[in-house]
Design a protein that fits this description.
Structural class: mainly beta
CATH superfamily of the largest domain: Jelly Rolls
Number of strands: 32
Largest sheet: 9 strands, antiparallel
CATH class of the largest domain: Mainly Beta
Mean pLDDT: 95
Strand order of the largest sheet: 5-32-8-9-17-12-15-22-18
Radius of gyration: 22 Å
Distance between the termini: 43 Å
Strand content: 35-45%
Number of domains: 2
Low-confidence stretches: none
Length: 384
């Protein structure tokens, strides 16, 4: 994002002595990326965060590719993904390239018996159904329907879900997930023409310090392998921290759409960006107000990017027969556009209630076996 934030107790200077009431030193940890030149935070633990009791290799989570090179418009029914009891087991990667993985999850629970860390990638969790609390050593973040949760790589977390009916769209990004640079000035502040501002972001709060010893299980994903680390100390034994590297939340409902007299191009919907991709939020908005405007998008060719559109709610006027949780994939190199009748239906309309998340990878994506289980037959013929 980045933005300076702090919680709890910290010393006045970095890398100096910081004692508890009993005269024992707190343990300082620099949590950062990019070899000390990326975003970082300084964290103060009660105990060293390095005391490991046991390490086990659990399993290989690498996605199994069904279609390595695709040139066909495809669609997938995301809500057909069966719900599973466990958070990690429920995560199904559907689309992959060297910049990001995209998947869906339908967890009933996140067991209190373990913590999770993705050491490969930053994560974006979009909450389509469900609510709860994201718990980290930085503090807690409450979330609900429509929230994006941005979790930097290496963050240890747990999730308390309110109930068992949860649907999540996720990205694993091998570069930091950032706000679009066209919306930021040289100091990182969001500009006046940005469709959101700093007030819209929800940062960690309610820092809870756990001074507990035992055998704390953390599942760590690294290079596609899931490892089990058993630590001597509770990972949330933090008394304070400050910096720029921490999880946060943003609600898609707080995105303020940019509109005009004639149809605006997709970049006005941009929400996030990483190396090799962008993410856009399509939200309820007024349609174009030129007297002869065509609100439906024009036909366009994705020559240099794929287009993945995840349908969240409302009536997405450019598509026929679309269900909630459905995903369309329009590959780079061929034109696509509104379904038959959509252009005509849109003329004279003044607004839309559609809600969707669009992910545009700039490199082609391969399609996994898990995705093919959800495929809609002959979607590429739906313009006939």
């Amino acid at each position: 994002m980045p933005r300076y934030h702090k919680l709890g107790s910290i010393p006045p200077k970095r890398h100096t002595t910081f004692y508890n009431d009993a005269g024992k030193l707190y343990q300082e940890e620099l949590f950062g990326t990019a070899g000390f030149v990326g975003m970082s935070s300084l964290i103060y633990h009660i105990h060293p965060p390095t005391v490991v009791n046991e390490i086990k290799r659990v399993k290989d989570l690498s996605p199994k590719i069904a279609v390595e090179k695709n040139m066909k418009a495809l669609s997938f029914k995301g809500f057909s993904l069966p719900a599973e009891e466990d958070f990690i087991e429920s995560r199904k990667t559907l689309f992959v390239n060297s910049d990001l993985h995209i998947g869906l999850a339908a967890p009933k629970t996140f067991s209190a018996d373990y913590f999770y860390k993705n050491a490969d990638a930053d994560e974006m969790l979009f909450i389509h159904k469900g609510a709860g609390v994201l718990k980290t050593m930085y503090g807690n973040i409450t979330f609900s329907y429509g929230d994006y949760l941005i979790i930097p790589r290496g963050t240890v977390y747990q999730i308390d879900f309110e109930n068992q009916d949860n649907r999540i769209l996720y990205i694993e990004s091998f570069s930091p997930i950032l706000t679009p640079k066209q919306y930021r000035n040289n100091f990182g502040q969001l500009l006046e023409h940005s469709p959101f501002c700093e007030r819209d972001f929800r940062l960690p709060e309610n820092l809870q310090t756990h001074d507990e010893k035992g055998n704390f299980k953390i599942f760590i994903k690294k290079q596609g392998i899931l490892w089990e680390y058993n630590y001597d100390n509770h990972p949330f034994d933090v008394v304070g921290w400050d910096g720029f590297n921490y999880p946060y939340a943003f609600s898609i409902h707080d995105f303020e759409p940019i509109t005009g007299r004639i149809h605006q191009p997709p970049p006005v919907h941009q929400q996030w960006e990483g190396v090799g991709y962008v993410v856009c939020s399509f939200v309820p908005r007024k349609y174009d107000y030129h007297p002869n405007s065509i609100p439906a998008p024009y036909h366009h060719s994705n020559v240099d990017s794929e287009e993945l559109l995840y349908y969240v709610d409302g009536d997405f006027m450019s598509r026929n027969n679309i269900e909630l949780g459905q995903i369309t994939l329009h590959p780079g190199g061929i034109p696509h556009g509104p379904h038959p009748g959509a252009i005509e239906r849109s003329i004279g309309k003044t607004s839309t209630e559609e809600l969707a998340v669009m992910i545009d990878p700039f490199k082609p994506v391969s399609i996994t076996e898990e995705a093919m289980k959800l495929q809609v037959d002959d979607y590429y013929k739906s313009w006939k």
